[in-house]
Amino acid sequence: MIIKQILSYFILISFYFISLGVNAQEKQKQTDYNFNINADFVSRYIWRGQKLSETPAIQPGMSFSYKNLIIGTWASYSFGNEPIQEIDLFLSYQTGVFTFTLNDYFFLNNSLTDYVNYFDWNKNSTQHWLEAIVEISGINNLPVNLLAGVFIAGADVDNDINPQYSTYIELSYDFKVKNIENQIFAGFTPFKGYYSDAFDFVNIGFKTTKSIPITEKFSLPVSGALIINPANRNIMFQAVISI
């Protein structure tokens, strides 16, 4: 019941801020309102050290912001015959060095004839994963970022269908070398859950991003990341082209 109320409030807030955006365009107030749409092409879908696809994927996103509040959607659709695909909704608010986000990850079947009920919030069968995230960045203008996320509802349950509250914590450091953006990151889970069977580092790596000029006014961001998951003794590389 609580989850349904949260989802209802989420939808109402979405329509409210979309209506604000329409009014803003009519009044030509572009300072406080912004609409963004983008897409990434990834060599493989890798998230927090977890390999979620065996084939390349397209990952489109769309968001609307009003001052420090952002509401949007994001998806991942692999090119291969993967068993599941993903579409998410999120609500984010930034104040000072803090950013608070509520993410609703939803996994749907690839088949057009066999699908998952989007409105199913029963913990025995739902494919929703609801996560609360806190990010801290820009303290004293330092290029250090801290992220902590915990699943608070949905399919994150153990074999007895009890909530696991799987938690992920990541520390990252940004720096530039000859105008090329780089990042070193390390993520771990403090206890047994979705990411690992116990406390362990699950996402350690290095990412670099460079904009390749296409025309005088257009550049194409390209990035690569070397990722190691010590928990499952795996190493991966991901290439990303953003538009």
Tell me about this structure.
- By secondary structure, the protein is mainly β.
- It has a single domain, classed as Beta Barrel (Porin).
- Helices cover 10% and strands 55% of the residues.
- The strands form two sheets. Strands 1-4-5-6-7-8-9-10-11-12-13-14 form a twelve-stranded antiparallel barrel.
- Strand 5 and strand 6 form a beta hairpin.
- The N and C termini lie far apart (40 Å).
- 15% of the residues are buried.
Describe how the helices and strands are arranged.
Elements: H1 2-26, E1 33-42, E2 46-47, E3 50-51, E4 57-66, E5 69-78, E6 84-95, E7 98-109, E8 128-137, E9 144-154, E10 167-177, E11 180-189, E12 200-213, E13 219-229, E14 234-242
Antiparallel strand pairs: 1-4, 1-14, 2-3, 4-5, 5-6, 6-7, 7-8, 8-9, 9-10, 10-11, 11-12, 12-13, 13-14
Short recap of the structure:
The protein has 243 residues and is mainly β. It is 10% helix and 55% strand.
| CATH fold-level label | Porin
From the alpha-carbon coordinates, what is the Rg to the nearest angstrom?
A: 19 Å
* Poorly predicted runs of 5 or more residues: 9-18, 24-28
Instruction: Assess the beta-strand content as a share of residues.
Output: over 45%
CATH classification, class level: Mainly Beta
- Count of distinct strands: 14
Strands in their spatial order, largest beta sheet: 1-4-5-6-7-8-9-10-11-12-13-14
Largest sheet: 12 strands, antiparallel, barrel
CATH H-tier superfamily = monomeric porin ompg
The count of domains is: 1
The proportion of residues forming helix, as a percent range, comes to 10-25%
Average pLDDT = 88
